[in-house]
């Protein structure tokens, strides 16, 4: 399975990089995983609705340019479907079973994802009704993908 994580912005925090690198190393035994960063759109703190749409649109164009046409896209969005770790594992297993070997997870910037990215997504996934920094979501996502592979292989992993 080939998994891509397309995400907005550069990761600066050393502690997050270390955690992500650890899970990517562990995941390498199960799948080819790559993290693709696209630049975030510079914007002032206070934005009008129109400006927010424009910023998300520009980031969305960069995201869409990195998604393979044959990829199954799972967009992380607060309004997405909430799943348990076992549900995520089952979903990834079913995708692999039905020949969907290219999976792309998308993490938007601080304003979220554009309508075009959400339209391209085959499904949306929410980790919580809470808002998390998009940099932290990378770590949470790679840990959950790793957990999913462990579950699917029947291998022990802490609960």
TrEMBL record:
One cellular component (GO) term of this entry: cytoplasm
Domain of life: Bacteria
Keywords from the named record: Cytoplasm, Methyltransferase, rRNA processing, S-adenosyl-L-methionine, Transferase
Entry function: Specifically methylates the pseudouridine at position 1915 (m3Psi1915) in 23S rRNA.
Family affiliation: Belongs to the RNA methyltransferase RlmH family.
Protein name: Ribosomal RNA large subunit methyltransferase H
Organism of origin: Bacillus salacetis
PANTHER family referenced in this protein's UniProt entry, alphabetically: METHYLTRANSFERASE, RIBOSOMAL RNA LARGE SUBUNIT METHYLTRANSFERASE H
Enzyme's top EC category: transferase
Assembly behavior: Homodimer.
One Pfam short name: SPOUT_MTase
Any one GO molecular-function label of the UniProt entry: rRNA (pseudouridine-N3-)-methyltransferase activity
EC number annotated for this UniProt entry: 2.1.1.177
Catalytic activity: pseudouridine(1915) in 23S rRNA + S-adenosyl-L-methionine = N(3)-methylpseudouridine(1915) in 23S rRNA + S-adenosyl-L-homocysteine + H(+)
List of residues binding S-adenosyl-L-methionine: 76, 108, 127-132
Cellular localization per UniProt: Cytoplasm
């Amino acid at each position: 399975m080939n998994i891509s994580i397309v995400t907005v912005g550069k990761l600066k925090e050393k502690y997050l990089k270390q955690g992500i690198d650890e899970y990517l190393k562990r995941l390498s035994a199960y799948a080819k995983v790559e993290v693709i960063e696209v630049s975030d759109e510079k914007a002032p703190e206070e934005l009008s609705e129109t400006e927010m749409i424009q910023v998300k649109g520009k980031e969305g164009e960069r995201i869409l340019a990195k998604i393979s046409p044959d990829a199954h896209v799972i967009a992380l969005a607060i309004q997405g479907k909430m799943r348990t770790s076992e549900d995520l594992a089952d979903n990834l297993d079913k995708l692999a079973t039905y020949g969907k070997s290219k999976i792309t997870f998308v993490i938007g910037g601080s304003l979220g994802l554009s309508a075009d990215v959400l339209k391209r997504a085959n499904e949306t996934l929410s980790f919580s009704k809470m808002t998390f920094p998009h940099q932290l979501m990378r770590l949470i996502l790679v840990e959950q993908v790793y957990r999913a592979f462990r579950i699917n292989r029947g291998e022990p992993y802490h609960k």
